[in-house]
Amino acid sequence: MQSHGGQVHRLHDHDPSADDVTDAMSPARFARRRLLKSALFGGAKDAGVLSPAESTNALNSEATHTVIGIVLDVSPHVLVLQTAAGEQRLTLAASTAAWRGGDVAPAALRQGDRAIAKRNYVRKAIADRIWAEIGRVTGTIVERDADTLLVDEGTEKGRKILVIPPYATGRIQVRFPRLQPGYLIDVIGLRRPGFVEALIPATSQPPYRADQPPRPPMVSGHVPDSISGTATWHEPGEEAEDLLGVAYPALDPETGCPGHGHARPGEAVAPPDDPAHCAGDFRRAEHYAVDPHLAGPGCVRLPYLSLGSVLQIRNECVPRARDLPVTSCGAAARLFCDRCVVCGTSPRGRVADLTMSAFVDLGGDLASGCFNATITIGG
Amino acid sequence: MLSAIREVQIPLLAAMLLAGCGTKAVRVLRTREMGAALGPTALFPLRLRRPIAIGLCATEMGLGIALILTAGRFGAGLPATLVRAGMTLLFLIAVGALAELRERRPDAGCGCFGDLSVTPVGPRTIARSVLLAVAAVATVGQAPLTMPASASAAAVSIGLLGGEFLLIALLSPEIGEAMIRLGYSEPCEIRRVSVERTLSSLTGSAPWRRYASTVTSAAPADIWREGCWRYVLYRGEMDDRSVDVVFAIYLRSRRPQVRAAVLDAVTNEVLTGLPARTRAAQDPRGDRSAAGEQAGLDDVRGQIPGQIPGLDGTWPLCPQPQVAAPRPLDVTRPLAPGRPLTGLTAPGTDDRRPRIARHRSSVHL
Fold first, then answer.
1. CB pairs A-B closer than 8 Å
2. Is A367's Cβ below 8 Å from some Cβ in B?
3. What CATH number was assigned to the domain covering residues A66-131?
4. Which of A54, A239, A303 lies at the smallest CB-CB distance from B307?
């Protein structure tokens, strides 16, 4: 097992001499699409031009109920976080729960921890729940060395190293009996320098290999606007950590995901920029890497959308809903044909892979890994 | 009559066994994974699933072939009895396994016919297994098969065979699945359509001809898709002001609907475009083939209150493929009358001139 030092991203050919399409990839382009649609189909004044106040919804503003930052200080009554917007002080009530590898008292959080807190929906100064140093690894096992796994999270998110400590091995293997290259894994754990320490299985391991997900049921007529399934969360990666958005599993393959078509099962691509990454190991790992775009549509039929499209996502367990833009490619979620059982049993298939902030804001518990969700296409 | 019924069981059961093995083999070839087989193998530990799946398929094929070989005088007697007893045992085990599967894995299909057997095991599937087990029992001790003595006897045999196949078909959820697959057409929302094809449809449309002289960029400035619609944005110029010309193309193979609108590139004022609000609003879900499709989405959007977070563009950028322009300024194509090819710029350049005057018009397509 070679060292990757945390996330390893594939290199994609990128033509620096791009034409107008790629030149115009300013973020405002995605925001403007909604206005252009309105001009085509009417309702321009309703949708209108998004004013700066509308188009910018910083995480730490009052519009959200999530705060992400570094723990500066924690006492039995107050938590101080250093966020992108400055210091945030949250009151710790008797009911405030905290997670740091397991349920702990809020005062057990440590200075320097990366924490995400959910505010109380009514009394916003109070933190309802705090998760510290929580991480997640979701993808295809491409290499294993004893208790260390190299997991490919898809063409966009790269790879992560997952270490399963002895005390968690039994718990993980009950739900993931095949810790072998080519099979899927999805676990939640503690972030460590360069790797994630696996603690909790986020789902049960699908019995199929990652490149052979079952076919979805056929749809007659049109795909319904509202689709139910599982909503999960992912770590920010290269996104802003306070981003409220969703990685959508079915971006238009013609214009959607970066890296699409660049890697096929068994086909070697340019090795990551890591001197410890020898060519032999790379080829072996690449043999098991799966490009989700080539593995079929997944087990739920989702309409093709693009970055910037807006979804309404409803947490059926709370219930709470909000509009979220598609901010990244979540094709890897198509590989999982699982159900969420947080509140009842959801239909099979992952319909949204939310950012941590969005997941918490919608009332999800990061340690549970999912909530039963219904998405409505619109925007 | 009873003898005729017993006689037709052998070819019928042989056909069922070989079909079962064949469809399972097709699934294995497609998935390249024997352990991924459906059905009762799911009841076993992981390490046993693969050998059991292989053994089941091999047993079906072996029994099917042996049943045919021992149906006549060749192999009559003990070999035929052993083959038929083995087949009977197989079907009796199948009945028990399916009942157990229904109890322990109610979401699993029986896997009897590979990919077609994805419907959860129900009473129909179990009844079919019982029928086949009874048919297998009926073959034990059956005399070697011979050609029918008369045309009427042959007709009776064929009729019985057809009737039993029909009964099995009625008990088989796989028939419905196969019919669906034969007549299935993917909805436009999930149909892959290339950008080149979309642009080809666009250039053949009336809105394109109407606005071709306005377009100044050789390549689209933006392309995106939402459901059945693909949107293409071009830079343009109208009356010495920089404009954006946006087209919406319905992703249909023949004569797709195309809409167009022109917006001021600086102020976002809609200069020309479809007053589609009325049409969309009048038919919110009726005609999903075009306007109604979008109207439905608009309705949903209208019900969603609050802000759209994240639209500050802080998400990572997504490179898009370089797409050649669909002859946007092809002088050989007929252009709208009175529209000179002004404002022609090199591909990728953005020759925006100061806005001079406002211009508003309405275009009905």
1. 279
2. no
3. 2.40.50
4. A54
Interface of B with A in 111-130 (CB under 8 A): 115, 118
- Give the 3-state DSSP-derived string for chain A, with helices as H, strands as E and coil as C: CCCCCCCECCCCCCCCCCCHHHHCCCHHHHHHHHHHHHHHHCCHHHHCCCCHHHHCCCCCCCCCCEEEEEEEEECCCEEEEEECCEEEEEEEEEEEEEECCCEECHHHCCCCCEEEEEECCCCCCEEEEEEECEEEEEEEEEEEECCEEEEECCCCCCEEEEECCHHHHHHHHHHCCCCCCCCEEEEEEEEECCEEEEEEECCCCCCCCCCCCCCCCCCCCCCCCEEEEEEEEECCCCCCCCCCCEEECCECCCCCCCCCCCCCCCCCCCCCCCCCCCHHHHHHHHHHCCCHHHCCCCCCCCCCECCCCEEEEEECCCCEEEEEEEEEECHHHHHCCCCCCCCCCCCCCEEEEEEHHHHHHCCCCCCCCEEEEEEEECC
Per-residue pLDDT of chain A (379 residues; tens, 9 = 90+): 333 333 333 333 333 333 443 344 456 777 788 888 888 887 544 333 333 333 333 333 446 789 999 999 998 899 999 988 889 999 999 999 999 999 999 988 999 999 999 998 888 889 999 999 999 999 999 989 889 999 998 877 788 999 999 999 999 999 999 898 889 999 999 999 999 999 999 998 888 888 777 777 777 677 888 899 999 999 887 788 888 899 999 888 887 666 554 333 333 333 344 433 334 444 555 667 777 767 777 788 889 998 888 889 999 998 888 888 898 888 888 889 888 988 888 888 899 999 999 999 999 999 999 999 999 987 4
Q: Do A19 and B219 touch (CB under 8 A)?
A: yes
**Class of domain A226-263+297-377 as given by CATH:** mainly beta
Cβ-based contacts of B248 with chain A (< 8 Å) = 37, 40-41
Set of chain A residues whose Cβ sits within 8 Å of the Cβ of B233: 36
Report chain A residues whose CB lies below 8 A from the CB of B192. 253-254, 304
Looking at beta carbons, which residues of chain A come within 8 Å of B363?
none
The answer to whether B335 faces chain A, any CB pair under 8 Å, is: no
The answer to whether the CB atoms of A57 and B313 lie below 8 A apart is no
What ranges do the domains of chain A cover? 27-55, 66-131, 226-263+297-377
pTM > 0.80: no
Distance of residue B2 Cα from the nearest chain A Cα, in angstroms = 42
Query: Is B252 at the interface with chain A, CB within 8 A?
Result: no
> Scanning every residue of chain B, which has its alpha carbon at the shortest distance from the alpha carbon of A244?
B310
* Residue boundaries of the structural domains of chain B: 2-182, 190-302
